[in-house]
Design brief:
Blueprint: H1 8-16, H2 27-40, H3 66-82
Amino acid sequence: MADGIAPSYFVEGMLYNVPDANFGLSYCATLINVLNWLNGCDRAKLECANGPYFLFHPTSPVTWRREQFEIFLTALINFWNDGD
């Protein structure tokens, strides 16, 4: 994965959207729950942690590009499943 695909503040925003019920059973269960939720969520409804912006927008300088999110999420899932 290239540098700059997933800055920490966008990862924070991504995790901010995951419902609390997906966290806390164990580290392993939390990761599986979070990845499954993110993989199935309506990406158009994801918001930045500070509230005034959607997490994704194609031209805004303060939001993540959806393509970068998809690259990051795919890399996380592949790493979890395959260790690659």
